[in-house]
Amino acid sequence: MADTAQLDLDTDRIKQWRSIVALIIFVVANLVVLFPFHIPIWIPQRPVNAAFAVLARLRVLSPRQEKRQRQVAQVQALAFERWNFPMDFVTAPLIADLFLLAIGAIGRTEVHDGTVGANHIAPIDIMVFFLSLAYIALSIDASGLIRWLACRVLRKGGKHGYRLYFYLYTFFFVMACFVGNDPIVLSGTAFLSYMSKASRNITNATAWIFAQFTVANIGSAVLVSSNPTNLVLAGAFSVRFIVFTINVIVPVLGTIILLFPCLLWLLFRKDGLIPHEIELEELPENIKNAEPVNPNIPQEYHKRLTPEEQSALAISTVLNPYLDKKSAIVGVIIMSATLITILVMNATSSNGHEHPVFWVTLPAAVLMLSWDLCFGWIHRHETRQIAVNSSNLGSTSRKIGGSEDEADHANDHESVLDLTADVEKSGLSEESIDEQADTGQKSPKASHDAVSGKSPRRDHSQTPSKEVVLEKIAVQIEDPTDISDPKPGMAATMKSCEQRTLHSETIRGWKWLRRTFPASSVVMTHLPFKLVPFALCMFVLVQALVTKGWVAVFAYGWDHWVDRTGVVGAIGGMGFLSIVLCNFAGTNIGTAILLCRVVQSWVEIHEQNGLPISNRRFSATVYSMAIGLNYGAFSTAFSASLAGLLWRSILDRMGIHVRSRDFALVNIPIIAIATIIALVILVGQIYITRDTEAYVPSM
């Protein structure tokens, strides 16, 4: 539990050079989070080669083959090798903390209060709670329940475009209220990408993907457990979870109801964005009636499919989704029981005697993990056989219906990939290879611009129809064992020549885990572990601003603003400030940490002056902050939230590329309309439900 300590309100410390440096480092770290980059580091080749030789000698890495070593040597023409050090939301706050420690700007107190916690904010407790609950939500997603329900919604909407748009809009909002925005971004984004490919007349996915991202973040404002920013806010001011939901549910529902017609008839009214009738591709009967394959099991042959085959396979993923009914039922039961227990425990506990909420979520996550492991072990023979059949199919997929030139091209491509893998092991970057290699041609990447709707031209005279491609995939899937490896002897020889190393055994072990425990291994890869070092380092940075007097300065500024503008100014000012800072203060999590400390100092100022804050002004500040922190995720920058970064990466993988400029242009009118609706409703709600009596902080 976080200890309660009196906040330091001494503003004279900002004149010290360490305080000035701390503020500059905080700003620079947040700018790096907003605009990540790589720092090139040039290292002499001899130490690098010696290090890799030692690692190969110790059998940590595999020794390079002589032929490939000569090929790599041709690329390594310089005496130095370029290594790229990432500067992003993980490394920048950590380096900033280490620098402040080195110059003595922060010490043990700041590190302790920024990790263990202080003043009702316990970062470690919040991270454990969020990760454990995220595992349950992602496990439900891995069972295929969200994709299956989305498919039901798709069939319910039928061919009516507006009705389907409303159904999906409502469905994603309801799901986000319970499981948060991350599972909706993970499953919903891929589903909409596949759906746009499965439709003949949806030429642009903008209206669908932006609406999904918007409602996912709006829905995450309802429950405290749905977003880590809500956890920070509720913990900072000891707000009960049920009280938090009661105060934000009306503005959120008002936003959802009034925003939909604005999206449908105002922002996305252009032809092709939301067609009146949607024409979906038809699946062949053998695929339509086939048993869907678990997407969590690695499918090797997917990597060798042509773009047309991948598009056709995406259609089958949308119209014939996989569902693990038993795991879905268990996940829903565990999630429901966990949320109900948290709400009851939080509502019945007395002030000052609350138990950490991760006492409930951590055992529930362990229970869900145990189910996934046991279920995977029981069905290990089935999942391994599916993976083996996929590997056999992938090794010969180019032989089916393809020419010898295509097979030769695939083999050449594989050799290039192998060379690239060796070069990466040697420490060379792609930039250095491009600069030094004069041979080779770059193949243009086929991409799709989500906003402009432009896609590369294709030669339809040589491109098979989707029906033909689907039939070919169906033949491959139905009987993969009939296709034999054309060169089994060569594969066996290469396999026998491989030297077992720590690297190869790690890869082998990971493949074994993916095939034996597909659900739990996929969930582990999707868990936001990078959030932990980022959040803890940001807590320490904000704590540095607290001890150096900057948070007190911000608190005095906020006090003057509220005194001049009243309740309406508090709601409008905090809502606008939190949304803007989400884009410039290290995502909405960094903004939540900073603003909570500012408001805590604001309350402390009034307590020391003997002029308590009214309930109306305090509630206006806190709940407008809650709305701004959740709504700010869909504002002007992808880095406004970690969900935004995840959303962009999934779209890029699906071939839908959203530029930063287009992201801002589309979201600005959406965030403006949504924020105005929510804050106007909140103003009326605060005046009706809150009085002007003094606010008494919970201890």
- Inertia-based shape: globular
The secondary-structure class comes to mainly alpha
Reported for the largest beta sheet, the result is: 2 strands, antiparallel
- List how many beta strands DSSP finds: 4
Helix content range of the residues, please? 55-70%
What are the segments in which pLDDT stays under 50 over at least 5 consecutive residues?
Answer: 394-448, 452-463, 477-496
Transmembrane segments: 20-43, 89-106, 126-146, 166-193, 205-224, 244-268, 328-345, 357-378, 531-556, 576-599, 620-647, 667-689
Organism: Cercospora beticola
Protein name: Citrate transporter-like domain-containing protein
Pfam family, one: CitMHS
What do these coordinates show?
Among the domains are: 37 residues, no CATH class; 154 residues, no CATH class. Helices cover 67% and strands 3% of the residues. The chain has 29 helices and 4 strands. Strands 1-2 form a two-stranded antiparallel sheet. The protein has a two-stranded parallel ribbon with strand order 3-4. Helix 26 runs antiparallel to helix 27. The protein is globular and about 75 Å long. The chain starts with 16 loop residues before the first helix and ends in a 10-residue tail after the last helix.
